[in-house]
Design brief:
The chain is an alpha/beta fold and 320 residues long. It has 2 domains: 205 residues, Rossmann fold (3-Layer(aba) Sandwich), CATH 3.40.50; 106 residues, N-(1-d-carboxylethyl)-l-norvaline Dehydrogenase, domain 2, CATH 1.10.1040. 50% of the residues lie in helices and 14% in strands. It has 13 helices and 10 strands. It is globular, with a radius of gyration of 21 Å. The structure holds nicotinamide-adenine-dinucleotide. The site of nicotinamide-adenine-dinucleotide (NAD) has 27 residues, from helix 2 and helix 6.
Length: 320
């Protein structure tokens, strides 16, 4: 190997080992909320060797989350993506908590993935600010709520950041890293590096309603729901047009069910309030479905119906 290549590779090694050291200091991660996203985030950190405290308001969602994580790790073993030893170690790395205070005491980083509700998140961050060590970074997985607003209830707005994972977390590569108005360069680069350590691809964006992902995705989902509501076409037809016509891996109505219709509605409210533009007004059908408890996959029905253990994609009776 010539001298130039030796120098080049040793420089690369140095950069990698510096970034490894920077994140090696981060050992204890706390995840708040063990639902669709929280269990996936806990899974990924545990798989990469971090000690994870998984926190929810009751035992029941935590038990459900641990069953989901175990099932998803089993699938990774079957697909030969991880070894059985990693599966076992990952499960050992996760400790469930029903008390936020107990779960975050030693955390170097907290990732909040509780229900998409601004008041709830503001209360959680106020508590986190008093429970956590002064240098703990506080991240939120919010899909749309202002990072700057969340940061404003803490005394450490420079250490508050958006870390927006995609669903399902163990599979999807993107992390949208959102800088609040006061987020520091140092915290942003730590979170960018950490995301890379999880073999994700982080993309840095600024803090405006919906950031990038949902500002573009949600109007499409809302328009698909309007098309159904106005009788332009049925559920299967709308999804088929978008799948085969636009090469999307799943149609927008199936994707809405997968994300959670309550989550989609909350994001549309944030876009509507944030920009004051009627184009973001949620379709009345979406509002009705959420009020009636038809929230998609997690409630067993939405635009499609979901029988436990079945992979068949059946349009919900109401839309047949
Ligand atoms: N679902 C998605 O596809 C998706 C994708 C990206 C980001 N997000 C965002 O991730 C966050 C979580 O969404 P989700 O889909 O996982 O929701 P979810 O409804 O599946 O889970 C939310 C969990 O938070 C728990 N929780 C509520 N209040 C809490 C509190 N005070 N302390 C601890 N736990 C609490 C609930 O019990 C529940 O288990 C939201 O901010 C959402 O916008 C969701």
């Amino acid at each position: 190997m010539d001298k130039f290549r030796i120098r080049f590779f040793s420089a690369i090694n140095q950069i990698l080992s510096l970034s490894f050291k920077a994140n090696k200091r981060m050992k204890n991660i706390a995840v708040i909320g063990s639902g669709t996203m929280g269990n996936g985030i806990a899974h990924v950190f545990a798989q990469y060797g971090y000690q994870v405290s998984l926190i929810d308001i009751a035992e029941e969602p935590l038990k459900k989350a641990m069953v989901t994580i175990e099932k998803n790790l089993d699938r990774q073993v079957t697909k030969q993506l991880i070894t059985d030893t990693t599966r076992k170690q990952s499960l050992e790395n996760i400790r469930p908590f029903t008390s936020v205070e107990a779960g975050v005491t030693n955390a170097d980083l907290v990732i909040e993935a509780a229900t998409e509700n601004a008041d709830l998140k503001l209360k959680i961050f106020k508590d986190l600010d008093s429970f956590c060590k002064p240098d703990t970074i506080l991240a939120t997985n919010t899909s749309s709520i202002s990072i700057t607003k969340i940061a404003s209830v803490t005394k450490r707005p420079d250490k508050v950041i958006g870390m927006h994972f995609m669903n399902p977390v163990p599979v999807m590569k993107l992390v949208e890293v959102i800088r609040g108005y006061n987020t520091s360069d140092n915290v942003t680069s730590t979170i960018m590096q950490l995301s890379k350590m999880l073999e994700k691809v982080p993309v840095e964006v600024n803090d405006y309603p919906g950031f990038v992902a949902n500002r573009i995705l949600m109007p499409m989902i809302n328009e698909a729901i309007y098309s159904l509501y106005e009788g332009v076409a049925g559920v299967h037809e709308i999804d088929t047009v978008m799948k085969l016509g636009m090469a999307h891996p799943m149609g927008p109505l199936q994707l809405a069910d997968f994300i959670g219709l309550d989550v989609c509605l909350s994001i549309l409210h944030v876009l509507h309030d944030g920009f004051g533009n009627p184009k973001y007004a949620p379709c009345p059908l979406l509002v009705n479905m959420v009020q009636a408890g038809h929230k998609g996959v997690k409630s067993g029905s939405g635009f499609y119906q979901y029988a436990p253990g079945s992979k068949a994609l059946l349009v919900a009776d109401r839309f047949k």
